[in-house]
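Q: What does the assembled structure look like for these inputs?
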Amino acid sequence: MMPKNKESGNTKETQSPEKQILISTNLAENLKEISNQFGNSTDIVIRKFTIICTRVQVAAVYIDGLVDKIKVDDFVSHAMSFNTHTEGQQEVTSGKDAFEYIKEKALSIGEETMIKDWKELCGGLLSGQTLILIEGLGEAISGSTSGGEVRTVSEATTQVSIRGSKESFTESIDTNISLIRRRIKSPNLWVETMKIGVVTQTNVSIMYINGIASEKALQKLKTQLKEIHVDAILESGYIEQLIEENKFSPFPTVFNTERPDSVAANLLEGRIAIIVDGTPFVLIAPATFIMFFQAVEDYYQRFDISSLIRLLRFLCLVISLFGPAIFISALNFHQEMIPTPLLINLASQREGVPFPAFVEAIIMEVTFEIIREAGIRLPSQIGQTVSIIGGLVLGQAAVQAGIVSPAMVIVVSITGISSFATPAFNMALSIRYLRFAIVFIAAFMGLYGISIVAFILIAHMCSLRSLGVPYMSPLGPFIPDSQKDAVYRSPLQSMRTRPRLVSQKNNVRMDSDEGKRGDKQ
Amino acid sequence: MRVKWILRSVIYFVMLSLLTSCWNSRELGELGIVSGFGIDKGPNKDEYRVTFQVVNPSATATSTGASKNHPPVTIYSSTDTTVFGALRKTSKKAARQLFFAHTQLVVIGESLARSGINDIFDVFERSHELRLNSLVLVSRDADAASILKVILPIESLPAMGIVKKNKNTAGVWGENRDVNIFELINGITGESDFVISGVRINGDEQEGMKLSNLDQTEVKALVVMSGLGVFKDGKLVDWMDGPKARGTVWVQDKIKETSINIDYKNKKKSVSVDINLSKTKVKVKIREGIPVFDIHIKEKGIVNETKSFVDLSKGDEILKLEVSLAEQTKKEVTQAVETAQRMQTDIFNFANELKRTNPKAWKSVEKDWPALFAKGKLNVHIDAYIRSTGMRLKPYLKENSK
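A:
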């Protein structure tokens, strides 16, 4: 990303000349100007025609692909349908008359607006509007005809759940907002939209429940979003990285999801959703560490099972962070900790392995990472082949060739599998590279090094904030009330309050008095 | 600001490196894992001959494609005036640095045991690698080295096999004790004497060293647990075997499970009772200058076998068996104590018990305790219960069948 000050310089340059220019009254000139502005792009469609009864030149302009062709036809024919034979209708003879007539007719539908400004005109075209320009008039009629090809709502691919909604977000911001609105039918669900990205002019909406979301966090987020000056926002990841408070932290402080039900649940906890046009991944802030280990399904299944599964995920976190490190430090530093039969077993496996345990671990880990990285970008059919070659052929052959010991393969595999058990992929990524650092230190300092790293990591995580909320809450600042939905999940009946620190204002989720509850919200 | 930050982190890391711990990194392949070691008398006076049983990882059964042509262990021995000196001297013979944290077994040679073992255990407490929970055994009719040399069937590691044997027999038969170094040092420093389980080789020692020893169903040499070595002032004085050994363990309250054959009517030792719960309480008092040992044993057992007809469906018969069981136990316990009294060795912790409960009285008898111990009066009280008769009541034998 380019430095900020340079961006803002660019912004001024490109924005200022456009500002006050109005549309001219000469149609040919206007059309030429449009072509110039868009550099004669071939997807700009200009359809010129003459209104027969008046001989007035009219043109319809739109960008192919951004519009729904049927809507364009509807709009144009509706606006132009001069039915001169109808009784009581005024005879249209001049351009002015025609314009008045079209305006009246078009605006009666309600979707159309009048545009006088060039900047508005370009913006309208780019967001899929169709413009009707009339000879002799310095105004354009714009009709909302946006459409074109968008992906339909389909099943979530990255955050799959057995039980629960199968819908996931699409690339269209309107669809995404509607998906959330359908889940929370409250007038207090507020959306604010802004355009970010000097060139891309991407629609970014923030969504929150008024009265539950914390004002402070909201203000903070809004200022942060306003401070963003970049030329492009192509994915919500851009926003995520630009609003993160600690850019060099390995841990993500903004949560992302492609599940509308997850967003709805988080909104109800007082969090704020950031929806970016063009990506199915919706950001949620403020995020806490625990959030990355909670899956929506935890709330759909019974609490006891969910709690156990959640504990399992934390176990997996520990394994995937420290697994190989503990193995190496036990093997190289603390042989006395390993039970005798196991030690002899390991020793016999390592007979003939030419590398030190650390190098062996690094070889296996890097191989595993290569297989994983190669597998992700491949089509699924070939991806399977990669995993077969990687897992079966490489793993087994490496052991039989005596390059790595079977125990190391086991440790690296369980570590890899454990890292997949983290529901949030961005957290899993962080853990993935932290693991290498920990392995490295374990090879030099043993368990002592591991405890140092663990200490540093915990201290660092406790220092993180996400929109002013402590990252480790409710564990960091220990909040007894919020424990019921942190490491374990209590029954829904007992989760009467929303998590503290995220929503300070309206904390009561469930009230014995139903009426009271309605008032509060 | 940035410089300050970097400087700060550099200082922290330098400080971290000063905080040393187990920093010494050693690859598994550089270590010779010592599974057991033996201490014998050296050829010269004040010298020890220390024998190490070092694991040969590539030949252990657990390994993938283990080569069966090599013995699972290799033996090295060195002589020096200190145990640790001998440990380090072995580096001349061993390719790998010996690693003692997994030493399971320490065998003391009989000849060394007879001349006193009180001074050899300091290294076990002082060294960070040696463990205090290794089992201690005394070799019987052999030196410690030859015990360690014998390869055992089933168990791939001989030292571990011996440890398991001792644990097994101490657990279900009760003639041996599971004495580790920690307990032994307590015994040496305490007021009483102590016992250590004995171990011997049955068969041809030379054959036992060879891998071919395992190529037969009945091996030519087998290491077996054998009795209890009685130590007086750190010197082995005698061995206790059979019922005497079990009686000793019984008084020490270390019986976990044992099997005892009791008399029924006129048939001697015809009913086998499996004692699965036994609790011994000892009280030592001084009455008129002579110690009185009150031993109270509560034992519970199951009838596991009868050779004659016993109508176990009748409560009276069970009561009779219980009386017989108590008698038998009492006999063994009395035998054990009397034998110890004859040797004037208090191996039952009586002295420690007296010192603990009545320090004043102990002061008065401390000087000539061995003699007083030998004169001590024994009161044995046994509560024997039979809790179950196994899977059936009456045996299949008819009442009058012969």
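The interface with chain B takes residues 331-336, 340-341, 343-353, 356-357, 399, 406, 443-448, 452 of chain A (CB under 8 Å).
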